[in-house]
Write a structure and sequence with these properties.
single chain; 181 residues; 6-stranded mixed β-sheet; alpha+beta; elongated; 5 helices
């Protein structure tokens, strides 16, 4: 068996897992105004693990399909929950309340889009070809919503004498100024 065949089997096993919710056709889902609600365990969102101090808990999500004012198909994704992010200074836990509410406009994957559409910051496009894996979509949106470098408001570096107090490294030199050798 070739490496590529083994990789395809492994990917297939992961995606066919019963824990992953999927939408077979996102355009039909939106056209028929379907709704999908549920929860995802944080432990199942592998790409988040390095950013968290604790992978327990769940995130609640809802996905609502609709047809927009211009005739476009959209998905409204809402995700809420609480996660324990790792502070980038002390590596301690920071409780982060997640509250995502995004409207995603569906476009066929590889569709030609005008430069004006691509530069429009009021619209978020979601290229879709075939199945849409909800867990992956939720994980993508969570990764975009969390802070790049979370830290406590008053946090010093590990091992610092007082976490809230800044130490001036030149304070000792200032005391020596004007003293004879």
């Amino acid at each position: 068996m070739t490496w590529k065949a083994k990789n395809n089997i492994i990917l297939g096993l992961g995606r066919n897992s019963s824990r992953l919710k999927r939408i077979t056709d996102a355009f039909v889902f939106a056209r028929e105004s379907r709704v999908l609600e549920g929860t995802l365990a944080v432990s199942e969102l592998d790409r988040l693990h390095d950013l968290l101090t604790d992978i327990s808990g769940e995130l609640a999500f809802s996905l609502h399909g609709a047809k927009g004012k211009r005739g476009e198909y959209t998905l409204r994704l809402r995700v809420s929950g609480q996660m324990s992010l790792a502070c980038q200074r002390c590596l301690g836990a920071i409780l982060f309340d997640l509250d995502i509410d995004n409207l995603l406009e569906l476009v066929p994957e590889g569709a030609d889009m005008s430069q004006d559409e691509l530069e429009d910051d009021t619209r978020d496009f979601l290229p879709v070809a075939g199945e849409l894996f909800v867990a992956e979509l939720v994980e993508d949106e969570v990764l975009l919503a969390i802070p790049v470098a979370p830290r406590h408001e008053k946090c010093g570096f590990p091992g610092a004498a007082d976490a809230g107090e800044r130490i001036n490294p030149f304070a000792t030199l200032a005391g020596l100024k004007g003293k004879p050798n």
